[in-house]
Amino acid sequence: MNIKSKIFLLVVVSCLAFGCKEKPHFGDKSLLVSENGRYLTTGDGKPFFWLGDTGWLLFSRLTREESNTYLEDRKQKGFNVIQVMLLHDVPSRNVYLDSSVVHADVSKPMLTPGNNPKDSLAYDYWDHVDYIVDQAAEKGLYMALVPVWGTNVKNKKVNKTQAKAYSEFLAKRYKDKWNIIWLNGGDIKGSDGADVWNTIGETLRANDPNHLITFHPRGRTASSQWFQNAKWCDFDMVQSGHRRYDQDTSKNEKLHYGEDNWKYIEADYKLKPTKPTIDGEPSYEDIPQGLHDTTQPRWTDSDVRRYGYWSVFAGAFGYTYGHNSVMQMYKKTDLKPAYGPKDQWITAINAPGAKQMQYLKDLMLSHSYFDRVPDQTLVAGKNGEKYDRILATRGEEFALLYTYTGRNFSVQLGKIDGDEVKASWFDPRTGKSTKIGEFENKGIKEFNPPGEPANGNDWVLVLEEI
């Protein structure tokens, strides 16, 4: 038997003995749900921590040169997913005044022959989308695409027949681009146009089986309320929204969690079938609290950090950041900007919170990943409420506890492996760690974070097996 025959026989025997897994469609760049149903992985089995930015109006507001500036900045700051609308309005136009569809009919995309940026007659709305998607791919960024924003469906501008044709167009156009994720919906309840949302989801799945799909819901709701059992929906997404505790008083909303976005994640975590979950839109940096009254205080970098660590420690597989000016790509020439943005997008991309988000991703990827679970039993004694709440998560060999106020708290040791543990403080503002010491891994121990207790004096206690 020659060497090639021996190798072939070995492969056959191995497949029979251990089973052969088909290589993911996009190889190592594929995004897949982990075997335990809690996280995302790349095609090579490595953990993928979703660090998203809401660049909602990227396709319609920025030129090719501006989009490159934005995407390169987000790459450098550690973001790996950009959430963006394909159609914010029906009909709509981009910065080059190219129309997206014919006669406000989403089933008829406005297309021209050719794809030459230097020829306006051979470069259309969808060519511009392609250009930016390809730019993102060159930078290693995934594009989470919203087919059509929810208000258009709620206002009856899209019916099932149109939705099916439009979704087939999208799936066929983008199914071979590795860096696509589908965000069905768009700031809408799943019950508002459920037939359209299911049509979009099912059509995308039928024509594009290799990209992940979810649903972006309305504020203070979760996609799982409508689509937990939908076969087209691969993972759950919540929009915890932009209201303070005292502003979350609507009698028409099912959930009243205020700023406690961790409660949405905790609820999703208990559902069956098991699906990964994420806060895809918490309060944006520099947006008025409650959104519409621009005289209200604005959310700050400490708030977006709090939402990030709270949700991830509660069991989310990643986190999406947003900034008031960046999400709408605000320029001072805009006649009717939303929610009173102050800085232009080109300035706002350097907001403090945007720079700090990468530290959350780095922290989570620095420990074993797929064995991590939320575990509030790490917090000894009575936990605090609202801003005084301690959120805790652990793997087999580490534990992380987040305090937003920097108050003293006690920890039940012995929850991770090892006779002894080493402890350190991780600073979410800088990503730097400070050693505390080593301790016997049993009993209850109180920890005192650096600084005086105050909102925004947030720290992560890191415990690791020695």
From the structure above, extract its key features.
single chain; 466 residues; TIM Barrel; Immunoglobulin-like; 2 domains; 22 strands; disordered N terminus; Collagen-bd_put
Helix content: 25-40%
CATH superfamily of the largest domain: Glycosidases
Structural shape: globular
Number of domains: 2
Count helical runs: 13
The assigned structural class equals alpha/beta
Instruction: Tell me the β content.
Output: 15-25%
Largest sheet: 6 strands, parallel
CATH class of the largest domain: Alpha Beta
- CATH topology description of the largest domain: TIM Barrel
Mean pLDDT over the residues? 94
First CA to last CA: what distance?
51 Å
Under the CATH scheme, the architecture of the largest domain is Alpha-Beta Barrel
Strands of the largest sheet, in order across it? 10-9-8-5-4-14
Q: What is the strand tally?
A: 22
Radius of gyration (CA) equals 23 Å
Low-confidence stretches: 3-20
Tell me what you see in this structure.
The protein is of the alpha/beta class. It has 2 domains: 27-365, TIM Barrel (Alpha-Beta Barrel); 375-465, Immunoglobulin-like, CATH 2.60.40. The protein is 27% helix and 21% strand. The chain is built from 13 helices and 22 strands. It has a 6-stranded parallel β-sheet with strand order 10-9-8-5-4-14. β12 (236-239), α9 and β13 form a beta-alpha-beta unit. α3 (64-76) runs parallel beside α4 and α10 (301-313) runs parallel beside α13. Residues 3-20 have low confidence and may be disordered. This is Glycoside hydrolase.
